[in-house]
Amino acid sequence: MKTTLPPTQTATTSLRVRRLRIRITASAILFVAAAALAATAIMMPPKLPWATPVIRVGAGPTAAAIDVATNTIYVPNPWDNTISVISGSKCNATNSSQCLPIATMTDVGFGPGLLTFDPTTRTLYVTDILDQNGDFGNQIAVLNVANCNAKNTSGCSQSPVALVTTAGSTGNEFDIAFTALDTQFHTLYVGDGNFGPLSMINTATCNALETSGCSNVSTTTATGLNPVIDPSNHSVYVSNLATASLYVFNGVTCNADNQSDCTAVSVAPLPAGFLPYEADIDPATHSVYLPLFAETDVLGYTAVIDGSTCNGTNHSGCGETPRLVQTGGAPLTAQFDPTNRTVYVLDAGSAKISAIDAATCNGVNPSGCPSTVPAVAVGAGSYTFAINSHTHSIYAPSQVTNAVWVLDASKCNGARTSGCTNFAPTTLIGAGAVGGALSAQSRTLYVSNQLEDTVSIIDTRVCNQRNLSGCNQSWPKINVGVGPRFEAINNAKNTLYVASVNDFVAPGWISVINAATCNSQDTSDCAEVAQIPVGVFPQQIVIDEATNTIYVENQTDNNLSIIDGAHCNANDVSACNQAWPTAAVGARPQGIGFNPSRRTLYVANTNDDTVSVINTVHCTGSDTSGCTPVATVPVGGAPRAVAISNATNAASITKRGGLIAMSDSVYVGNRDDLTVSVFDGSTCNGTDTSGCPQTPPPAFLVGAFPETAGNDPNIFGRALVIDTAKHTLYMPLPADSDLATVDTNQCRAGHVNECSVKIAKERAGGFAFTAALDNATGTVYVVNDNDGSVSIFPK
């Protein structure tokens, strides 16, 4: 599919920048304590099919720096104020015998966030996120690591030899500033978190052995967050989110000793709606690789710029439009590996590192840039990384899992992809993809795009696991209300209902759309035919087609709206615009399931860790006399997804010569402990509550990193989907963009110890949020929020 980019922009408002930075980097700054794993959880974490060695470090690791001479990796942990010291000879791509810290530096300042290592003086410069008061800081700690490395750890207990206060703010509540070192001119360039002037530290007089110049900080006229240097000509490039621009100036005439000419010029026109982050350079071709992430949740790009005609001394080519290579969601940082001529781009939103072949895709010859690039998976909350070219190892800290992922660059690079991660095929939709509902009649998948107020219409007849070629196209969209999230379809009335949140405090509404004239084969009338007023922040929807009742969770109001669909559907909207009765449930309902055979609703209440059980016999659009919950079931931490496996859909199982009587199983996905609680719906339903658990029922563990469960985004997704033909429960996991499965014949109420979780061999896209199933082809569609895409399983 050819992507058409919007016109070039020259500036963006601070409001738009702030919105984006909250979305992408808040979890890197605002560390959330891990939720305690539910006491009822059992089993070992599932094995990731693409897993690599990991190093358990301190709290919230953000970066890595490498001392090649001693093969030492330094990792800052801002939320426990430490730096982990790791031996690269015993923990690398080919040797993981001792992947653990050999020492920990504890007196390193407050909130160490980013590192720069100067090999000439064996100095580690540490950008502090916080100051001693817990405010966002603007200091650089100077550390002597001559005796704190893989060969000698005797000096790891030292204090900083100096603290350098930069001219601006190195960090604010959403961003931390990057640094770049020019060893020849002894200058450390420090970006500004508020996009002010760069600071310059003289590393000849401010280092581990000499601190006389640490109080003398110079500034440039160039402004921005992320500087990078072309070592061949000392051109300094710096990206500025506030102006959505990349600038360049001459480092020969603008350094710590010489500020005779610090004039900066704009490098290249960048596409509107995309903001630049941390670039890197191939000095052989002077190519600049600049990550561009979108202001909304769609895939980003890496701009390939010809620096040979746009640098500190030659501006002749600075107006040229760069070639764009699409990578993953929220690309933040690029790093060039000279040994394999590969540019690695960290796509934070997709939790992967893309590999671009710099030999065939560069500024001099952009025609060789591919439409897709291979990638390797990393842990959630990775924001930057380091490469040891000598051992072909990539060290990628994952702030969410408190670990450093060790990747093999020799097997995943621009020329070799045998060690790259297998990703499921995708189809692109829109920004902030959330819910998904499938019409069995028209074979149409409707997916809400929350950040652009639309619903995409996907034809599952031509885009499924058996026919992937049809996925490579643009899909039509429906304009709906503000912030659409979840949908439901009444197949009997051929009506699509879409919940729009509006905002967190005002009532939302449900858009009513005629699915007969708005589907994958017919888009003749895709306008809303009516809007149904509901409560504040409506979430998931279920429909009882037998009584034509629509149940809508109102998260903020702690209740359900009970809507009579008999006179509020695509063909009759006479009763849509009215105040509807509600049913009180628990705190912050966010998941709902309906068992039509037992006339029972199960409502997951996220904030009180319970499930409300409602008998719908007298809780319909025409009769709300019995809408009070008949039971409340305690479950795991913050439940928000529900699925029911009916006994009539379960296969008979022979065990020890006899048939096992199958019963309904209710599965509840728990956000904050990465478990699925299971209880018996045959004895816990609207008419029989004798078997409703009084204490949390057994649960099985789904996530691979339970010790950090609850750290956003290491959470359970928003959907549980059951394929009754295959007897398989599908569970999307946002943190590592996995799709987990269990066999519902084996894993059921009373037999949770038989729940053997498997992770799909293919990885989904960024932040796998929800899922939908097409029974006709057995295709599972996983909605990827950060990428604005849908992954197709299995392939």
Structure, explained:
The strands form 16 sheets. A five-stranded mixed beta sheet has the order 2-55-54-53-50, with no helix packed on it. Strands 21, 22, 23, 24 and 25 form a five-stranded antiparallel beta sheet that branches. The protein has a four-stranded antiparallel beta sheet with strand order 3-32-31-30, with no helix packed on it. The protein starts with 7 loop residues before the first strand and ends with a strand. Among the domains are: 1-26 and 267-421, Methylamine Dehydrogenase, Chain H (7 Propeller), CATH 2.130.10; 422-584 and 782-788, Methylamine Dehydrogenase, Chain H (7 Propeller), CATH 2.130.10; 585-759, Methylamine Dehydrogenase, Chain H (7 Propeller). The chain is 2% helix and 40% strand. The radius of gyration is 27 Å and the shape is globular. The protein has one helix and 62 strands. The chain is mainly β.
Annotation keywords:
Methylamine Dehydrogenase, Chain H; mainly beta; disordered N terminus; five-stranded mixed beta sheet; single chain; globular; 795 residues; 40% strand; 1 helix; five-stranded antiparallel beta sheet; 62 strands
